[in-house]
Design brief:
disordered N terminus, HDA1_su2/3_sf, 23 helices, mainly alpha, about 700 residues, coiled coil, Rossmann fold
């Protein structure tokens, strides 16, 4: 009964065996209300394969780091999904038809198939065309994830790349924005060391866009796959040029038009090597010295870390490979939807089903793209100025969890009805009407350009509406608000003197009140003290019998006498101290007067001595003193020179006499030895006896 049911399945991927085939070539149908044990086992195997792939990437030190999609990327992604929505709907209908028991019955009725197939093909596309369209959509989404500018197939002028600012270029792509922030952080943090990184891209056009971002920064770079866009002719230090030259020769790979041995961009210690992925696979095979990179930054998400060239590059340092992944994009979904392994007899269909699943999941997660990302995205993930990324380059395991917190917001299981609603695009493209022409490989570029043109017109109309309608209203409101502000300011300015006068009076009254309160407190303290004394006197003047005794009066009189004596003594001491103080004051005044007079005399003496020395220095004899010193030095040097010449002359004549004497003696000895020797020996033979020389 479940197979005969016509209700749509709850999930086109959760309840249908994607890769199981029946004998007739159709997909096997399952229950649409519950999941069988075989499907649970298949999903478990798929999840296990994803985990194994992630573990393999983690073991090979390939790390996916999150970035965000720019607004233009989100717009183009939604436009692409809208263009291919009919294709995705047709694929969904074809899958539903295959899962229906009626399609299995139609297989047996071959004569009745001709009319029904013609009618069905009028609504649905051929399988080959659908495969091509799905593959095209998948490829274009991958291009948009890197940079929407790569959709343009014509040549990008060099002046256009050099004239655009970094802000405009980074607004095109989230990957480029992340790379620009990383480079700026490395330039500021790694100034005191040579820091080399390898940047890998898929093609030369993407390398030119990346090069347009780093031109003008305080770093050195080389483009190993193409001629550099700009050569800085400034001369650098020898050490820096030597290091950069070695980096260019070793890491450049030798290809691409002579960019390998040159450097440009500044004196910074950061060195960037730009290279194409295919050239990296080919050129690094036999280079064992290219192991000084700190990390590899790949704009291509499909880079193969097991390639022999990359393994040779990372043989010593095993530098990490960072791949930026825009969140909620197709690259993000590919990390959770395992790609089928190659080598099967139905490999093309499996790849088609995988691409279709990624696209449908992307459509369902379209609400994540529509949410405005926080401007603090990079601050929350990488810290201020990307310091968290720079500090964890050597320990990249800390960066693995950055992408995981966005995985929980992905919707990977969904129903067919939900997918159909998402494919309608009622909210985003409700006012756009598709033309009667069906989408194909040939007219894709035309329809995409028309759709983007319509979106551009919509944005322009919205801008015009804001400028012509909303902006004047807001200007009027702002003007009236500013007028009210001006009136309030004038009123405040008019009342400010009164307010200031009242404030001064209030402060004066506050000070007066505080003074009165202090006086009142003093008076109250004194009054309480007097009351205490009166009470004490009353207590003492009230004996038990009610009369003052003679002993009390005599004691009080003696106390008064003692107090008067003490008072007179204190007064005399006070007078004495006052006299001494007056005497010391007079002495101090006299001594200070004398000190001032002595100081004036000392200043006069110093002034006289200064004038006397100045007159001596101004005498004509002192003016001739340097000349006399110079002449005296010359005379001393002349005297020493004369003595040295005399000694030299004497030694020269003495040595010449000695040498002449020795030569004569030697000549005589030689003549004597020649005349007395044997006639058979040569006459010109010199004697072997020792000579004075």
């Amino acid at each position: 009964m479940d197979m005969l049911s016509t209700d749509p399945p709850s999930s086109i991927y959760g309840n249908v065996d994607e890769y199981g085939l029946s004998n007739g070539g159709n997909f096997n149908t399952l229950s649409e209300t519950r999941m069988s044990s075989s499907q649970q086992q298949q999903q478990g195997q798929e999840q296990q394969r994803i985990n194994l792939q992630q573990l393999a990437q983690f073991g090979s030190k390939v790390f996916h780091i999150p970035t965000r999609l720019s607004r233009i990327q989100i717009l183009i992604i939604q436009s692409l999904l809208y263009l291919f929505s009919d294709t995705l709907l047709n694929e969904m209908k074809a899958r539903r038809k295959k899962s229906n028991i009626e399609s299995l019955l139609q297989v047996s009725s071959i004569p009745s198939r001709d009319n029904s197939s013609d009618q069905a093909n009028g609504d649905m596309e051929f399988p080959g065309n659908a495969h091509e369209l799905v593959s095209l959509c998948f490829e274009k989404l991958a291009v948009v994830n890197n940079n929407p500018g790569l959709l343009v197939e014509h040549f990008i002028p060099k002046k256009l790349l050099l004239s655009e600012t970094n802000e405009l270029q980074t607004l095109m792509s989230g990957k480029y924005e992340l790379f620009n922030k990383i480079i700026d952080s490395l330039i500021s943090e790694k100034r005191d060391e040579v820091y080399s990184i390898l940047v890998v891209a898929k093609n030369n056009k993407e390398l030119e866009l990346i090069e347009g971002i780093i031109i003008g920064k305080d770093l050195r770079y080389t483009n190993s796959s193409n001629i550099k866009l700009y050569d800085d002719k400034r001369k650098f230090c020898k050490d820096e040029s030597r290091e950069g030259g070695e980096g260019g020769e070793e890491r450049g790979g030798g290809g691409g038009g002579g960019g390998g041995e040159e450097e440009g961009g500044g004196k910074g210690a950061v060195f960037v090597n730009l290279i194409q992925k295919q050239q990296l696979y080919n050129n690094y095979m036999n280079q064992s010295s290219s192991t000084s990179y700190k990390f590899v930054f790949s704009f291509d998400s499909d880079i193969d870390a097991t390639n022999p060239s990359i393994e040779m590059l990372r043989s010593d340092s095993n530098c990490p490979i960072f791949i930026p992944v825009p969140i909620y994009s197709s690259d993000h979904l590919k990390l959770h939807i395992a790609k089928p392994r190659h080598g099967g007899f139905d490999e093309e269909n499996e790849l088609h089903e995988w691409r279709l699943k990624v696209l449908n999941t992307l459509v369902v997660n379209n609400f994540n793209l529509q949410e405005d990302l926080d401007n603090d995205f990079y601050y929350d993930n990488y810290g201020a100025q990307m310091k968290r990324f720079v500090s964890n380059i050597d320990q990249p395991d800390e960066l693995v969890s950055l992408l995981a917190k966005y995985d929980d917001q992905l919707v990977l299981n969904y129903s067919e009805e939900k997918l159909r609603k998402k494919l309608s695009f009622k909210n985003d493209f409700s006012h756009f009407s598709k033309t009667g022409q069906k989408l194909s490989i040939e007219n894709f570029s035309c329809q995409l350009s028309k759709l983007l043109q319509m979106k551009l017109i919509e944005i322009k109309e919205e801008v015009d509406h804001i400028e012509k309608i909303e902006l004047p209203v807001k200007r009027k409101l702002e003007t009236s608000r500013q007028v009210h502000f001006d009136e309030d300011e004038n009123l405040i300015a008019e009342n400010y003197p009164k307010f200031r006068r009242l404030t001064e009076e209030a402060s004066f009254l506050d000070r007066k009140l505080s003074r009165f309160e202090n006086d009142l407190k003093v008076k109250q303290d004194k009054l309480s003290e007097l009351n205490d004394k009166i009470s004490e006197l009353n207590n003492k003047t009230k004996p038990d019998d009610g009369q003052i005794t003679i002993e009390t009066l005599s004691a009080q009189s003696r106390l008064i006498t003692d107090l008067e004596k003490e008072l007179s003594l204190l007064q005399s001491e006070n007078q004495k101290v006052n006299n001494e103080t007056e005497t010391m004051r007079q002495k101090y005044q006299e001594s200070s007067t004398e000190a001032v007079s002595q100081l004036n005399k000392l200043n006069q003496v110093k002034q006289q001595q200064y004038q006397k020395l100045a007159r001596k220095l101004a005498l004509p004899g002192l003016a001739q003193l340097p000349d006399l010193i110079h002449r005296d030095c010359l005379s001393n040097y002349q005297y020493k020179l004369t003595r040295l010449r005399a000694r030299n002359k004497f030694l020269k004549s003495f040595l010449e006499d000695k040498i002449d004497k020795l030569c004569n003696e030697r000549q005589q000895i030689m003549e004597n030895s020649t005349s007395t020797g044997s006639s058979s020996r040569p006459s010109n033979r010199i004697s072997r006896d020792s000579t004075p020389l």
